[in-house]
What we know:
The chain contains eight helices and 13 strands. The chain has helices at residues 11-15, 35-48, 62-70, 77-81, 95-113, 124-128, 133-150, 173-176; strands at 3-4, 19-20, 24-28, 53-57, 85-89, 117-121, 153-158, 160-161, 164-168, 179-186, 195-203, 213-218, 221-224. Helix 5 packs parallel to helix 7.
Amino acid sequence: MKLISTGIPGLDEMLGGGIPKGHITVIIGPPGTGKSTLALQFIHTGLKKNENCAYLSLEEDEEDLIRTAASFQWNLKPYTENGKLALTRFSAHNIKATIDRVENDLQKILETFKPERFAMDPITLYEMIHDTDQERRTCLFHFTQMIKNIKTTAILTSEINPRNPNYSRYGLLEYVADGVILLKYIRPENSKTTVTAIEILKMRRISHSKETRPYTITQNGINVHSESEVFI
Length: 232
């Protein structure tokens, strides 16, 4: 099985080499834990390997994404100019238009572009525009099947469930994704400060670390300290 490097020091070690090719992985975490950073780092790693990559944002526009990446020393402009990176933003303000664009325009983009890596940030907004869990479940199933048909390796970011921070907002993504990675804040015993920690809750078809490891967000992106422990 081919493993796709995330480009994140320490995370690949926890995964035993990377994410299996063709997997859909959900990144869950509260605000400020670096979900978008992880997704951008994953995409930038693919670009450095000369892979076609696509990034869909439901929040930031293209220029904002380019500026965010630049803050980590990742220059995306050459890749948008040479056609290796497709940056797309769908506004979530118009509910019907957003649903139509995700289900129709996005499929056309992916089928034409055939990216080896795809990121969507955040998928939570797409879930929120549906009224019931049944509608969300049906749309998520069709959405993930579309991604599977393209045979791309995908990262989807999600907000946490307000009542249970170990789950995605609606608790549905965990069932349709191949992998689930949780980012969280932990306050170690006798400490006045919190640390950011990462845990791989699920990753089909590979043996992965079950430990919770600390990580930092640096000027060069996320760095997981895979040999360190978090003492709670």
